[in-house]
Design a protein that fits this description.
Layout (H helix, E strand, L loop, with lengths): L5 E12 L3 E12 L3 E6 L5 H9 L6 E6 L5 E4 L12 H6 L9 H11 L15 H13 L5 E5 L7 H13 L3 E5 L3 H5 L4 E5 L6 E5 L2 H37 L4 H19 L24 E12 L2 E12 L3 E5 L6 H9 L6 E3 L5 E4 L12 H6 L7 H10 L4 H4 L8 H15 L3 E5 L10 H10 L3 E5 L3 H4 L6 E4 L3
Parallel strand pairs: 3-7, 3-8, 5-6, 6-7, 12-16, 12-17, 14-15, 15-16
Antiparallel strand pairs: 1-2, 1-4, 8-9, 10-11, 10-13
Helix pairs in contact: 3-4, 7-8, 11-13
């Protein structure tokens, strides 16, 4: 394929889920060979839908998705499908191809080295940590050596070293790449342009430059459009006043009033549709379980993993009300394993006080029943909470009536995250356990989430690899599993 030839083009593509959920409205954009684009937009705007249309797993209602010269495409999704968790590493990579690959093992070793992961080929993918699974997902796309690489939230669950490794890989990458991400610093390192999917107009806006350039350009455009509309509005009101005056004069004056009315209509039509900013969630508060007294959690031993083998380590962690603990360590050391064990109260080296409610935000949302409607999912944790209070909590997380009727499994990953936070508000936990709570979440929501966690008065354990988020959180103690 010739350098700078268009590799992908959307030609007036429209798509909707059912008759009540339009996603795209005559979307046009193109991507040239060798370019690296960011695909951005609000949670639920349809970014992942765009990827599914590119790969052909979804078909447009109208318009065309044109892939030039049958260019090959591979996608690294946000999460490993549940039905693939029991596969071995070898079986997982074999599924990337339509035909049997006889030299699959050396190919696997090659891409695992690229993503900096040691993964025995007979080990099941479900036994890896979230960060390690993120590397497997990236490797599953790279092993196909595609002309067009699609990455859906590739930094989720990656530790600092993993993000640095991925960033350098993309800087050096010679082929075409489109990335969905909410991590501005990561994107700014390699992006040539931004595709912004507007959730309100359902159109795609295409910009050149990195994310910071785009934000500045959009802000300048909004300011200019608002100024133009303000001037038009002033002129429209003056003409409306004249119409009212002349309309009551009778005779020729009524004809003047009619012409001025037509002029007002023309000026109304000339007003610019100002691009709306993404909606943000409302400020919220996670109530703590009342009457918490004394020690809530005690941990005396933890299992840490080195070369995929567990080692028991003695520790001293005691948590009471209003204490916030940050748990740190490299991908695969055992952070999520510990949080999972604490939640189910089956970590042998820990005790949680009797009757303490545990609120668990899990990075893969497996605490949610994907077959439940959003309403039933919220109602399942809302003991002694009235209907009005439940719906008010939901609306604060941008969960409207239409979304309430949808199944959890049909939501975007970002929307699942907002449902998980709404559940925590309704649950009123005494112990809050958060495993990568900013994954998939629109960056505009993150300061509001940080503010809510700062005010939480129960005991809290947090795992996050996002420094900008951690800096906003009140942390009383940091426990490093590697030390």
């Amino acid at each position: 394929m010739a350098r700078n030839e268009v590799i992908l083009r959307f030609d007036k593509v429209s798509f909707e889920f059912g008759h009540h959920s339009p996603i795209l409205d005559e979307v046009d954009f193109s991507v040239r060979e060798g370019m690296k684009f960011t695909l951005m937009g609000q949670n639920g705007a349809g970014k992942t839908t765009i990827f599914q249309l590119i790969t052909g797993s979804l078909t447009p209602e109208s318009g065309k998705v044109i892939i030039t010269n049958d260019a090959s495409i591979a996608i690294a999704r946000q999460v490993i499908p549940r039905d693939q968790m029991s596969l071995t590493v070898r079986e997982f990579f074999e599924k990337c191809f339509d035909k049997k690959i006889y030299d699959i093992d050396p190919r696997i070793d090659e891409v695992l080295e690229v993503v900096n992961l040691n993964a025995p080929h007979e080990r099941t993918v479900g036994s890896f940590s979230g960060g390690q699974q993120a590397r497997l997902l990236l490797a599953s796309a790279l092993i196909q050596k595609p002309d067009l690489l699609l990455l859906d939230e590739p930094t989720n669950n990656l530790d600092k070293a993993g993000i640095a490794h991925l960033t350098q890989f993309l800087i050096d990458y010679k082929k075409t790449c489109i990335v969905i991400s909410h991590d501005a610093d990561f994107l700014n390192a390699f992006t040539h342009g931004v595709l912004y999917l507007d959730v309100f107009t359902r159109k795609m806006e295409q910009y050149s430059g990195d994310y910071k350039d785009v934000v500045a350009e959009i802000s300048a455009r909004i300011e200019k459009e608002n100024r133009k509309n303000a001037l038009l509005e002033k002129e429209i009101q003056a003409n409306k006043d004249k119409v009212n005056f002349f309309a009551h004069k009778g005779g020729q004056m009524r004809l003047v009033a009619k012409k001025m009315r037509e002029k007002v209509e023309e000026m109304e039509a000339a007003k610019v549709d100002v691009r709306k900013e993404d909606k943000t969630i409302r400020q919220f508060f996670i109530p703590s379980q009342p009457e918490l007294i004394g020690e809530i959690l005690n941990i005396s031993t933890v299992s840490i993993f080195k070369d995929h083998k567990p080692t028991v380590k003695k520790v001293k962690i005691s948590m009471k009300k209003n204490q916030h603990l940050l748990l740190v360590g490299r991908n695969g050391i055992g952070k999520s394993t510990l949080l999972e064990a604490l939640t189910h109260k089956d970590n042998k080296g820990s005790t949680i006080a009797e009757d303490v409610r545990v609120g668990y935000y899990r990075q893969d949302f497996s605490t949610l029943n994907f077959e439940d409607t959003v309403y039933n999912s919220l109602a399942s944790v809302a003991d002694n909470v009235g209907e009005e209070q439940l719906r008010s909590a939901a609306s604060g997380f941008l969960i409207d009536e239409d979304m309430m009727r949808q199944k959890i499994g049909s939501l975007s990953e970002g929307q699942k995250g907002l449902v998980a936070f709404a559940q925590l508000v309704l649950l009123r936990p005494g112990l809050l356990i958060l495993d990568e709570p900013t994954n998939h979440i629109n960056f505009r929501h993150i300061p509001i989430i940080a503010n809510a966690l700062n005010k939480y008065e129960g005991a809290m354990i947090l795992v996050s690899h996002v420094p900008e988020f951690i800096e906003q959180i009140r942390i009383d103690e940091t426990f490093d599993l590697e030390k």
